[in-house]
Design a protein that fits this description.
Blueprint (H helix, E strand, L loop, with lengths): L16 H10 L4 H12 L5 E3 L5 E4 L5 E9 L2 E10 L12 H7 L9 E11 L5 E6 L3 E3 L14 E4 L2 H14 L6 E4 L9 H11 L12 E5 L3 H10 L9 E5 L5 H7 L8 H14 L4 E7 L7 H11 L16 E7 L13 H13 L4 E3 L17 H4 L12
Parallel strand pairs: 6-9, 9-10, 10-11, 11-12, 12-13, 13-14
Antiparallel strand pairs: 1-2, 3-4, 4-5, 5-6, 7-8
Bound molecules: iron/sulfur cluster.
Length: 401
């Protein structure tokens, strides 16, 4: 075959081995060659894999790490790293990209570089085991506009491809040499706003021939896009998906507070969200984790605790068919990490403890998320590079999905 006719190498990062093997077969490679190449890319950290006679079968393009911040915490070192993306991606509406021209008619100008943000978080289990959780981004920026969130200040720049999402795992594993045990979709972006690529990424990440992350160790965190939850509900019914974790950012005891904090609530209110979650719970084998960012003077008084407990009451009982008394939902209390130019301070330790004990008194199963990485703006709700944020290309488009 002449040099110019050689097919472009496949990028397996967004593929299961099965999909990769099928694509490789169309290019004349056998299943053994495909399997070997797949393992070399995922497990050995190679950027290229060859079949025979120097024929290249796979090549991955990993966005380079352009910035890195580390912070010592009790369990080890938390590391946030930024990867610079090449070219426009899904729904890219920056000036100079095709969508931008299509939507706003402005003449093309060069687009500045974009970065994803990921955080490697050391954890220590109850038995003293050390693990690492990787917090990945699913979008650059976010359209959801939560008022307490740093990323929201950027608006949505674009969604990531499955390859770019898995590329964060690859970089953490093979460039940062971290053994990743858990993956949480809690970085920049709303995963259900980019659900197809997120599902494709999870399928690749859980393939035991490659990354081999257990489905039970992956959690999607959402603000509660009800349309996305319905779609996810179908996905978790598939073989191998029932143990996918779900975390929902509730953050408010009632619709008034939630409307104000999270614009998504004006499209799907708390009652609709709860119905969708109850439905989801019937199909899943996992507990749902409810996240609650405690913001002083906004959502942290005694009555708020009561209202939250009443709202979550259906999740405190075992589901039909389950034995034992363990609750099917738990509340993860997160002390607010002030974003840049925040209108609110961080809560005091005492006020967080007080709020948690009220929730416990009211019958909820409560855990506290320890803050890691606050000093480097890598803690929850703080991802979003200030340089990108200042560009402000895309307006908030909450609820248009
Ligand atoms: S909290 Fe999550 S969903 Fe809300 S704006 Fe921030 S990144 Fe988006």
């Amino acid at each position: 075959m002449p040099e110019s006719a050689a097919p472009t190498p496949l990028d397996p990062l967004g593929m299961t081995l099965e999909a990769f093997t099928a694509a490789a077969r169309e290019r004349g490679f056998g299943p053994g060659q495909a399997e070997r190449a797949y393992r070399e890319i995922f497990r050995d950290g190679k950027l290229e894999a060859f079949a025979d006679r120097g024929r290249i079968i796979a090549r991955v393009s990993i966005a380079p790490i352009v910035r890195e911040l580390s912070e010592e915490v009790a369990e080890g070192v938390t590391t946030k790293f930024l990867q610079e993306l090449k070219g426009p991606g899904i729904g890219d509406r920056r000036p100079g990209t095709p969508d931008a021209q299509h939507h706003d008619g402005r003449s093309p100008i060069p687009s500045p570089p974009l970065t994803t943000e990921s955080v490697i978080i050391p954890m220590r289990g109850r038995t003293g085991t050390h693990t690492h959780t990787l917090c990945v981004s699913s979008q650059v920026g976010c359209a959801m506009g939560c008022r307490f969130c740093e990323t929201a200040q950027m608006g949505l720049v674009r969604s990531l491809t499955a390859e770019e999402i898995v590329g964060q795992w690859w970089a953490a594993t093979h460039l940062k040499n971290a053994r990743i045990d858990n993956i949480v979709f809690m970085g920049m972006g709303e995963p259900l706003d980019n659900i197809d690529e997120v599902i494709r990424a999870i399928a690749a990440l859980t393939d035991h021939n490659g990354a081999g992350v257990a489905m039970s160790r992956i959690t999607i965190s959402t603000v509660g896009r009800v349309d996305g939850l319905r779609k996810l509900d179908e996905v978790v019914k598939r073989e191998g998906w029932r143990r996918l974790g779900l975390a929902v950012s509730v953050n408010a005891p009632n619709d008034d507070v939630r409307d104000d904090l999270m614009p998504i609530n004006r499209k799907w209110d708390m009652a609709e969200l709860r119905d969708a979650l109850l439905n989801f719970r019937r199909g899943s084998h996992r507990k749902i984790c409810f996240e609650y960012v405690v913001i002083p003077g906004v959502n942290d008084d005694r009555e708020h605790a009561r209202q939250l407990a009443a709202y979550l009451e259906p999740f405190t009982k075992p589901t039909a068919g389950r034995t034992g008394k363990s609750p099917v939902g738990l509340v993860n209390v997160i002390p607010y990490n002030p974003r840049r130019d925040s209108p609110w301070p961080a809560p005091t330790e005492e006020s967080v403890d007080q709020f948690m004990s009220w929730l416990t008194d009211d019958g909820l199963f409560v855990k506290r998320r320890r803050t890691k990485g606050r000093a480097m703006m890598g803690a929850c709700g703080q991802l979003g590079a200030a340089e990108i944020r200042r560009r402000k290309y895309v307006g908030i488009t909450v609820g248009d999905g």
